[in-house]
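Troubleshooting log. The previous structure file for this entry was overwritten by mistake, so regenerating from the original sequence record. Sequence copied from the archived sheet and checked twice against the printout by T.R.
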Amino acid sequence: MSPQGAEAAPGAGPGPGAASPRPLFGGCWSCRLLSGAGLLMAAIWVYQGPRNLMKKGIPPSMGAIAQITFAAGLGAWAIVILADPVGSWNRRNP
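Regenerated output below.
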């Protein structure tokens, strides 16, 4: 009995357990658009706090820099959801 998660032999074809990678949100374009746009708007909203302080000439604190970094992370996550690089990736067979 082979342990769970063991890989098949290199020459064996895909078995009943082999599945192609599912696209993000199951291919639902409106779901991706809604959640990606929501995350992008959240990133803009989080970024506005420290930006307004810096516009007034106040130097950014460590908290403001952390907030800007968090906003950049939210924006990157939104772009990944909107672009869906995993769902459109096709593996080439040699």
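The chain has a mean pLDDT of 80. Archived copy saved in two places this time.
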